[in-house]
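User: Can you predict the 3D structure for this chain?
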Amino acid sequence: MDCENNGLKKTRSEKIIEVLESRLYFTAIMIAISTIVLCYTIVYNAWGDLNNYYNNAGDVLSGLMPYSEAKFEYPPLCLVFMLIPRILTWSKESFYYGCAILTYVFLIIGIYFLNKIADRYIGTRWQTHLILICLIGFSTYFVIARNDVYPTVMAIVSLWLYMNKRYELSFIVMALASMTKIYPIIFFIPMIAPFILRREWKQTIKLFCIAAFTCVILELPFLLTDPSTAFAYLTYHSDRGIQIESVASGFFMMYDLLVPGDLNVVSNYGSDNLSGIGPDSIAPYMTYLTAFAMLAFMIAIMCRICKRVMPSDRIYPLVCLLATTLLLIFITFNKVYSAQYMIWIIMLLPFTQMNCFNKKDQQTILILLIPFGLFSMLSYCAYNVFEIHLLNTIPIIMVFIKNIFHIILMIALINMCWKETNAILKSMPVER
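Assistant: Here is the predicted structure, written as structure tokens:
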């Protein structure tokens, strides 16, 4: 009887995988979920930051210069994705739909490249399809109501180009992603690491200059107009407190729940931020702590393989895995953790499924994705419904559990990186 049950379970698993592997079923599922999300967004008017984007684009079209004459918290290329739907639409409502269409266009581009990566480096598509279904299901209206899909897709395209040895173009695209949202700039660290380890200093300098030149060109109009405000988006968040959904805030709030203290919530910088003796003491140092954690991780990895010749068939998956892991580390130690960060995390998780990695570790990531995504969704639902700014119990617990699963997911990725570098060490000759 047990054998029959095991066989039935295996058959069911195979059927699920077969459905996920099918392009037709995957397309149908994605269209259905995306339609539900769009309808929800329309019915509940959950357009989020699109109101700000509409106003930002309007300021530019009215002749105001971002940063110096109009407040703007994002890098300059982000304006392009606000201006396109603003120019092509005729009202605020039509602007919302224009942004939704542009978002779905970029999602299709991201899916196309992730499937190309899956075909070459995974051999099957079902893992990637499952992750992308979870992306829409768990992120819900944040996929539309935020602009994070654009830089994330550009980062994926950049990594695809990198894996095809088109390094110059890869660094240009990643620079464009960084000038849309700052976070992709951290991916340059693992991307440049192989050239440093191989002591290819000429190529290292060349790629660095290409990325820097791309950023300067995009920044040039604002540098010429008013150099003092050209980089306002870099300093915008420097004085803010610890955002209430961040990992650090989760621990402060949970402690305050058990041992009531002096915590309160201050609304500024477009979010709710924690205030009190503890969070106010560490907030000024969070940026430095984040940088230290990422660099310490990368230095540890590079030191393990610095005296070896790295085979090209292992380096590309490792670079992508390191980029994904750095993102998790960056968010863990950062003082901001907004709900849309889940878009960045989930869209990069297909890079953990490449067939050179340990299958057990791959399965662990897929298993962790479900509770992480679920509690991420529950935490921002609780955030809005149960008024976290009043430090109520339910949203605090939801945010805390979400952060715990985030930490577990980060540890699982770090473990994958450590195992992969060990596998590379065993397979590589010592450099003579």
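The radius of gyration is 22 Å. DSSP finds 19 helices and three strands in the chain.
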